[in-house]
Amino acid sequence: MTADQIVISIIIIATFGLFVWGRWRYDVVSLVSLFTLVLMDKILGGEGSSLIEVPSQAFMGFGHPAVVTVAAVLVISRALRNSGVVDLLARYLKPFTVKKTTHIASIGGVIAILSAFMNNVGALALMLPVTLKTAWAQKRSPSILLMPIAFASILGGMITMIGTPPNIIISNLRKEQQQQILSNALADSTSPSAVYFNQMNIAQESFKPAPFGLFDFTPVGGIIAILGVLFVALIGWRLVPREKQIKPTSRSLFSLEKYVTEIRFPEGSPLIGESVEKVNSVTGDKLTLIRYIDKKGKVNPLNQTNRIKENDQFLAMADPADLKEIMDEYGLRLTKEMRYRIDSLKNEDTTFIEVVVSPESTLVGRKRNYLRKRTSNQLVLMAVARQDKPIHKRLGMVQFCVGDVLLLQGRREELNNNVIELNLLPLAEREIEVGVFSKVSYALLIFISAILLSMLSVVPTTISFIGAILLYVFTGILPVRELYKNIDWPIIVLLGAMIPISDALQNTGTTSLIAEQVSILTQGFPTWTIVALIMVITMSLSDVINNAATALIMAPISVGIAVSLGVNMDPFLMAVAVGASCAFLTPIGHQCNALILGPGGYRFHDYWRMGLPLEIIIVIAGTPLILYFWPL
Question: Does the pTM of the predicted model rise above 0.70?
Fold first, then answer.
């Protein structure tokens, strides 16, 4: 291995390690990797190094068509939401919710179709309140619905090129890889690239590199999506742990064990003098003391034999539907700080709302003080619920995570405004609001026109989508103030920073080196097994790190393997595209999985129960489908 190859290998391994560690957000990790790449390029000889052509090109990835297309798709998703297209579809779901299988299949099918043409996280976020409302109406546990529809939204992204960032990346990388192979073949008639053209019987002079088209992913992705939705609707929901399939009994819309809040025992409470164990026994499953808050505000473990004293403060778990009743019955109060803020807001328009922290929310990684500043002290954080890790901190010290469910109090207008501003998902029951039909028609007409322009190769997909966004702005469907609101900037930074690293992997010859080693190790194996192996490796990586980053690294390696074997690169790229979209084993593999963690009441280990058989089905069905539609 050359010095350049050793350096880029170390950078890639360290990057994957940091992604898995999760201490820093993936966009920060990618920027650290990009900085290290440029720094090592300088140390190894600047322009003489093959890590990067010139330092000024380090940020060329941010102008890459894949990055611009991903941003455009996110903006278009917002416009489609504003137009009422989704609400119009959701309006007709009610008759299909009587039986469990049709309930899951109907909502899952709608989400899958939406995810094919808009951001899948956005599609899930739109349908989440509808799902919860229909679950409550049918007295059905949301836990048997939320994981299936989250998986359906991920499956739907496979259907088209714009359905998910990995497909957009794979599409653009196909053209770049073809250009690279053609250049290598023209430069050296004895190179593996020249041999590849000869074995594929392709005339180099007439060959024109091209990306995958908008619907090139549909034959494979569409069939896999149908199989996946049928699996989660017929079998998958039965694999949810039995304790989460119980019908909801409280007025809460979702299956949460408990919220964590802060209470105190004022003078006159009949529970003063009783032991902690006795209090928890008396209040039953409606309220449970879990931690003691001392006079300095420090949270301490509970001693079950300790006696309750006047004005003692505790962290307690309770369902919001039962909290007021149990506090009135035993004379309990919220802590003084919370009580003061509630009294300052109290009037006849004050109400409560339950919201989920979405991946796009600015609250992610922040604490209560940030919420107060952003809302100008107009909202009170009453309680927090989290499923993957128990909360044993005071509310002011809790750092919000994706999937957390917050109980907020405030005046109705301020609540509604701030929920939108903070990108929170309201979980309260709501009527489905159908958009104005004329806006739905305009929105669909503009979107379909953009797709047709792309399909007919009149203009590139990126340009047609930019044109659609401009029309959405001019027609008022997308207000200018919302133009950049739904762009997932961490993903954009991740893509822009990882593209030069992916290029360096190829420029240094590391992809060829890895491909040669894989070819040696799999010598004598049928080619279909290598396609399946690439899919499985990509799946495994996507379960623990961002799928866009996985696609950027695995795509060049898969092409290198195809060239070394002298077979068509397209089935190998398709295997990466399918594998990158299959993050079903963990809540951290995909934003959709994280989004339903709290509302569904799931634990980290619940995902593989449904996800593992689904991934096995996809590998078994996906491999022959890829080789049928994209022959070697």
Answer: yes
